[in-house]
Structure formats: structure tokens, C-alpha cells
Amino acid sequence: MDKMPGTVQDPKQFLQRYKTLEAEDTKYFHFARITDYLLPGESAPLEFVQQEIRDILLNKRKMDFLKQLEESIYNEAVIQNEVEVYEK
């Protein structure tokens, strides 16, 4: 609805009432057909957010791995006495 010209006061009522939209502005004609919609605050179907969930889980695993790797490198350096502390 953000892409269409004009404003809508009550999106829920508007979407329930209209399944096709036609609008025009100074340069273009806009046509839209609404097959399904999701109002703000409603849960999205799994098919729509499955890739996003996958990306979030993958990113979390990546961050955990990098944190573990950093700790491992630091601990190994401490054991081998290769850590130096610089103070001003």
C-alpha cells in the first residue's frame, strides 16, 4: 500500500473490502491485485520467513564460532606465554 498513490485510513477494512486497485497520478496508472495480505502485528506464514529464520540461525552459529575461535587463540597464547600487555 506504501507504493500506491493516496492514503488509507483503516488498512484492515480497506484490504477486506477491495481486492483490486486502480489509481493514477500525474505520470502513471497503477494497477494492483491483492491475493493475500498480512496486517502489522500478525504472524507471517512459515513459508515467508523460513529463509530469514535460517539466516538468523546461521549468523548465530557463525558468531558463536568466531567467539570460540577468539577465546581459543587467546588461551593458547596465554599458555605459550605469547601475550604482552602494553600500558600507557
Number of domains: 2
Widest beta sheet: strand line-up:
1-2
Low-pLDDT stretches? none
- Characterize the overall form: elongated
Backbone CA Rg? 26 Å
Count of extended strands: 2
For the residues shown, what is the average pLDDT? 85
- Percent range for helical residues? 40-55%
Order of helices and strands: HEEH
Strand fraction equals 5-15%
Largest sheet: 2 strands, antiparallel
User: Structural class, judged by helices and strands?
Assistant: mainly alpha
User: What is the CA–CA distance across the termini?
Assistant: 58 Å
Count of helical segments?
2
Explain this structure.
The chain folds into 2 domains: 38 residues, no CATH class; 41 residues. A two-stranded antiparallel sheet has the order 1-2. By secondary structure, it is mostly helical. Helix content is 47%, strand content 11%. The protein has 2 helices and 2 strands. The chain is elongated.
How would you summarize what this structure contains?
This protein has two helices and two strands. It has 88 residues and is mainly alpha-helical.
